[in-house]
Description:
The chain is α/β, with parallel strands linked by helices. The protein folds into 2 domains: 4-92 and 282-301, 3-Layer(aba) Sandwich (Rossmann fold); 97-274, Rossmann fold, CATH 3.40.50.
Amino acid sequence: MSAIKVSIVTNAKEETAAFIDGIFTDEMEVLLQTESELRDGIADINVMVPGHINVDADLIKAGTNLKMIHCGTGYNNVDLDACNANGTYVAVTPNVAAQSVAELVFASFLSLGKKITTFDAMMKGGGWKTTDFIDTPELLGKTLGIVGYGNIGKAAARIARGFGMKLIAHDPHTDITDDDVRSVSLDELLKESDFITLHVLLTPETKGMMSTAQFEMMKDTAIIANACRGPVVDEAAITEALKARKIGGACLDVFEVEPLAANSELRELDNVILTPHIAYCATEALAGRFQFFADNVQKILDGAVPNMAVNGDLGK
């Protein structure tokens, strides 16, 4: 008989079941639930892996046996105050997805910058280029601006070095010590960069940090990627900047409201690459993610504080 009930919120139950086979122990009863199923049965759940659903105060309060909510890299979708009041740990997942996220950023940079999707569609439609002047840049010698120099920002820097790019970064919370990475203000980064990648947590300070004024500072050839949290970028402002060709392009994996509305103007633009919040989804990253979840469930079984608990002093 299981000693603890774990709810993993997913609409892909069959695929998730196959992926997590062998990761959780026999003491852990893993339930693969939709959001509505979770809400209906929350009173019986000890550990929740909510994915991207909104974990509000009412849901947490109803979780009378809820010991831990386990998130990915961010927990902005969880009411932390309500968790503290409920005696529920909130844990995040460390460096397992950094390489996955950074690789998607560069795949998107290359797809957009080299016009790969455009030429692929041309070829599959029976066409062929009519000139050698296709106006695509090399990455060699270009400047990559990294906003947020944590694990993912460092992974992006490692990839950029392989392309021979120049590196600058902005992070007021981190001492940037890499010899080849110049620490700059955000304004300097926006003005100097040919490519910009955002890797910050969503906080009141970072919400909407990229808006009209920031896009005005960027080069009209610069490409920006957002694979952290959607609300970091003002969606209306970036849509207008892209439509007016004020910036070269955007690679967006996250959005203010997810899923992205079917009638979003972003879907109609040719200078944007859109992906559906999949940057963290490399096979290796997901395996590491679920293993970390399982290890922390064991911590709860052992009566220990889970690793990477943002409220680890709970109960002290």
